[in-house]
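Hey,
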Amino acid sequence: MSIKFDSVPNNIRKPGTYVEIHDYAPQYTPPARKLPPSWQANHEYHAIGPQQIADRVTRAIGGGDLYKCVVSGTSGSVEPTWPRIAGWQVIDGTVTWRMLRAG
């Protein structure tokens, strides 16, 4: 950061006097990432929802991983065994899920 000599107060404008300038950047706090809802049994999911966005869920047990609905349908009565590798898919009732990322 630079300042004009004219902007320095007279009482410190003396030869051999140093001005200490602190230019602190404001602390950045990233917005909290909102997770989609947890998986639900016997629930209707859509590959393309009302807002033209596919439904997404996290695991109900040990959540955090993110899954996207790629084939619309109704979920099964028991939570599926979710894949743990991004891009892999699992069939759940008549819904197909694709893992997007690990949580």
